[in-house]
Automatic annotation (TrEMBL):
<protein>
    <submittedName>
        <fullName>Alpha/beta hydrolase</fullName>
    </submittedName>
</protein>
<dbReference type="InterPro" id="IPR000073">
    <property type="entry name" value="AB_hydrolase_1"/>
</dbReference>
<dbReference type="GO" id="GO:0016787">
    <property type="term" value="F:hydrolase activity"/>
</dbReference>
<dbReference type="InterPro" id="IPR029058">
    <property type="entry name" value="AB_hydrolase_fold"/>
</dbReference>
<feature type="domain" description="AB hydrolase-1">
    <location>
        <begin position="50"/>
        <end position="296"/>
    </location>
</feature>
<dbReference type="Pfam" id="PF12697">
    <property type="entry name" value="Abhydrolase_6"/>
</dbReference>
<dbReference type="InterPro" id="IPR000639">
    <property type="entry name" value="Epox_hydrolase-like"/>
</dbReference>
<keyword id="KW-0378">Hydrolase</keyword>
<dbReference type="InterPro" id="IPR050266">
    <property type="entry name" value="AB_hydrolase_sf"/>
</dbReference>
Length: 329
């Protein structure tokens, strides 16, 4: 039985349309929310274009709770399924970081061409934060960037580096056995539930039940074993610190004090490495900010984007906003 989303009512207020684009040798499916979704003619005049990039093994559904918080006039929000995940087909290229970065550059150019005068904002969660950072360092031009649960340091150095090593062993096993058995292992409902239970920090039983249902429904929606293994290697072989100094856009980092993948100290270091960064730390949550604390994340994003506009209009300069007090925006 499907568990109803706590954010369904908010999402219902947003117009939405499903679309597709031929990109990187495959077909990218994406969802368009807000301005332009119910009237394509509005796309051209949309004041703000928000591109939302989900994390490893998820799809666009994962960031819908955050998208629901961005219901603002003039916001055109596009959320693709990464190639090889959800209902997007695989790329012709290898599904490593280089392949995904090239795809993101192509996707961003395509949707930006439909809203040529829009301010462009890009949001990435988890593996999506690495992908977004690599693209920004590689020349992707945006006005503002937001990284949620940013992978600020190598995954093996996180508070649960042992769990990452266990995961590496799990994926190696999935790669070592025959294709069909490997797919069964990699999409095992038992392993999906173990991962979900490990990551969820909330004590709210109803919210935990919904989180587990989301993972059950979408966490194994990958095209084939090769895609999921290549993307996993990319997710544990790179982190944002590799690209930080080349990220020139104003950047909001939304981190969690109980994130099992990246220690909080690394998030503070990352905020210092990115030339124009602001760090917001949400307390009592781990790597699932997008599920457990999307309201606070949305508030932080809106405040950051409003502040960014104000700063551009302030010829006298403003404070650099390197970090907040650790309790949100």
């Amino acid at each position: 039985m499907t568990v109803a989303s706590p954010f369904a009512e908010q999402l219902a207020h947003l117009p939405v349309a499903e679309r597709s684009l031929p990109l990187a040798g495959g077909v990218t499916r994406f969802w368009e929310y807000g301005t332009g979704a119910d009237d394509p003619d509005d796309r051209r005049d949309a004041p703000t274009l928000v591109i939302v990039v989900h994390g490893y093994r998820g799809d666009h559904h994962g960031l819908e709770p955050v998208i629901a918080q961005l219901d603002r006039p003039g916001y055109r929000i596009v959320a693709p399924d990464l190639p090889g995940f959800g209902v997007s087909t695989p790329m012709a290229a290898t599904h490593d970081l280089d392949g995904y970065e090239a795809w993101l550059q192509e996707f961003a150019a395509a949707v930006r061409a439909e809203s040529p005068s829009a301010r462009v904002v890009i949001i990435g969660h988890s593996f999506g934060s690495i992908l977004v950072s690599a693209a920004l360092a590689g020349g992707l031009a945006v006005d503002d960037a937001v990284l949620i649960n940013p992978i600020a340091a190598p995954a093996l150095t996180g508070p649960r580096g042992v769990m990452t090593r266990v995961a590496i062993g799990y994926y190696r096993l999935g790669a070592a056995v025959p294709e069909r058995l490997g797919h069964v292992i990699l999409s095992s409902p038992v392993m999906v539930r173990v991962i979900s239970v490990t990551m969820a920090k909330t004590k709210d039983r109803a919210l935990r039940r919904w989180i587990h249902d989301q993972h059950d429904r979408y966490f194994s929606a990958f095209a084939n074993r090769t895609v999921v293994l290549d993307a996993f290697r990319a997710s544990v072989s790179h982190d944002i610190s590799e690209y930080a100094s080349r990220i020139t856009a104003p950047t909001l980092l939304i981190a969690a004090d109980q994130d099992d993948i990246t220690p909080l100290a690394a998030q503070h270091r990352l905020a210092e490495l990115i030339p124009d960064a602001r760090l917001v730390v949400l307390e009592g949550v781990g790597h699932l900010i997008h599920y457990e604390r999307p309201v606070e994340a949305g508030e932080a994003i809106v405040a950051f984007l409003d502040r960014s506009v104000d700063r551009r209009g302030d010829t006298d300069g403003a404070d650099d906003g390197r970090s907040d007090d650790g309790r949100g925006a």
